[in-house]
Write a structure and sequence with these properties.
This protein has helices at about 1-20, 170-175, 270-280; strands at about 85, 95, 105, 110-115, 125, 130-135, 140-145, 155-160, 180-195, 195-205, 245-255, 260-265, 285. The protein is an alpha+beta fold. The protein has one domain (about 80-285): Protein Transport Mog1p, Chain A (3-Layer(aba) Sandwich). It has an 8-stranded antiparallel sheet, sandwiched between helices. The protein has a 5-stranded mixed sheet with strand order 1-2-4-5-13, with no helix packed on it. The longest helix is centred in the N-terminal third of the chain and has 19 residues, at about 1-20. The chain is globular and about 55 Å long.
Length: about 290
């Protein structure tokens, strides 16, 4: 009995000692020498070192459009704004006329220009100061003009048309003489412009006092319809003089295989000066190399 008590007492003491002892520190796992692969890390590139600026670029301002001088209400185009080609002559530049849709046109600087390709006439012409280009590709005629009529549109006209369909210069002049709204002034004379031969004839436009005009279409009152020239441009267009009782000169020139028809018009009081300037321009016509 005493032995069991002592044994029990000893067992209780052992259990108490165990309960009162501090817990053992768990052993740490040894550090692994190599980690298991998970995903391949994408290397981050180093941040580049900024290069110090050298000089700040100064923006180049756009080239200003030249201010019109001869004609205030039209934009004057500089040579830099036109398509240019160097000709066979060193130092000589030929420009293309700018495209103009209709009506008042656009003033151009003096210079050497090629006629539009859609006229099927590979010609160049030298243009002086004070002219507007009236580029009528839709109608298949090309016009340079100046002056002002009663509606502030041009009153002096140089119109280039391809009249090869007429067959010959003599046949063309015969057709002009049959136009009922114009009367010839004198006889046809031989034309020799820039080495191209043909005929020319002056006319006076008959009065048309009953015609009221059409301001919406920029047609002044009293002007006259001239139907004979309409065969040389696109259907659907008609031709009237720019001023009442204007004077005309029709020029038919043989330019290679092409019959060039040049229509000149101005008011009677300006006609002499106008045709002198027009002749000077037409004397510069020259065939371009294909």
């Amino acid at each position: 009995m005493l032995g069991k008590f002592c044994l029990s007492l000893m067992l209780m003491l052992v259990l108490e000692l165990v309960a009162c002892s501090p817990p053992a520190t768990p052993a740490q796992a040894p550090t692994a020498t190599s980690a298991l692969p998970t995903e391949t890390a994408v290397p981050i590139p180093p941040t580049p070192t900024p290069v110090p600026p050298t000089e700040t670029a100064v923006p180049v301002p756009p080239t200003p459009t030249p201010v019109p001088t001869e004609i205030d209400d039209a934009e004057v185009l500089s040579q830099a704004q036109l398509t240019e080609d160097v000709t066979a002559v060193p130092g000589v530049v030929i420009s293309n006329f700018p495209t103009v849709n209709c009506c008042n046109g656009r003033a151009v600087q003096a210079g050497l220009y090629r006629l539009p390709a859609w006229l099927d006439m590979p010609l160049s012409v030298e243009v002086g100061d004070g002219w507007r280009v009236m580029n009528e590709e839709q109608a298949k005629l090309f016009t340079l003009a100046r002056g002002k009529n009663s509606l502030d549109n041009p009153s002096e006209w140089i119109v280039f048309m391809n009249a090869s369909s007429a067959g010959s210069d003599e046949g063309l002049m015969a057709q002009f003489l049959e136009e009922p709204n114009i009367v010839p002034l004198g006889e046809p004379t031989v034309a020799d412009l820039a080495g191209y031969a043909g005929w020319q004839q002056d006319f006076a436009v008959l009065p048309n006092p009953d015609f009221a005009g059409n301001q919406r279409d920029d047609i002044p009152a009293g002007v006259q319809f001239i139907a004979v020239v309409e065969q040389f441009f696109a259907p659907g267009f008609f031709w009237v003089s720019s001023s009442p009782e204007a004077q005309l000169r029709f020029v038919a020139l043989n330019v290679g295989d092409t019959l060039l028809f040049v229509y000149l018009e101005a008011p009677p009081d300006a006609f002499a000066t106008f045709v002198a300037d027009a002749d000077q321009m037409l004397q510069t016509l020259a065939m371009l190399e294909p």
